[in-house]
AMP-dependent synthetase/ligase
Amino acid sequence: MLDAIETHKVNNLPAIPPVILNLVKYCKGNSKLSSLRRIGSWAAPLSKELTDAFREQFPWIELRQGYGLTESTGATSVFMSDEDAKAHPGSSGRLLPKFCAKIVDVETGLGATLQGRGTLVKRWDTNGICGENNWCSTYSGRSHSICS
C-alpha cells in the first residue's frame, strides 16, 4: 500500500481504523506518505487517542471519521471540514442532509434517555419501507449496534 501511495501520488485514502493504527505504529517519518492530504475512516469507531496520535505524527493529513451502513445507504454522517473533525474527536460527524437519526430502547422501541442504552435507528427520503414509520434499524440482538 505504501509503495502504491508513493508511486501514484495518492492524496485521498479511505481506510479502516486498523490501517490507521498501523500507519501510526510503523510509518513514523515515512516519506512514502508525503502525497496524502486526507484519510477518511470508516467501518469502526476511531478512538480519540488514535486520532490524536495520527494527527501528531502526520499533521499535513486531514483525518475525518464517518458513519454509515453498506446495507442501507452508505454514508449517514461525516465531517465536512478538518476543523470540525479536530474539534470533535471520537465522533463521526454530523448527519448528512435528509437524514434523521435517534436512539431507541431495544426492548420498547421508544426513545432512549440520555442515561439509557439503545440502538441507533435512522430514516431518510429514499429508504422506502424499512420498518415502523420508515425507521431503519440493524438491531439483531448483537452488541455491535448498541449505543450507551
User: Anything to note?
Assistant: The mean pLDDT is 80.
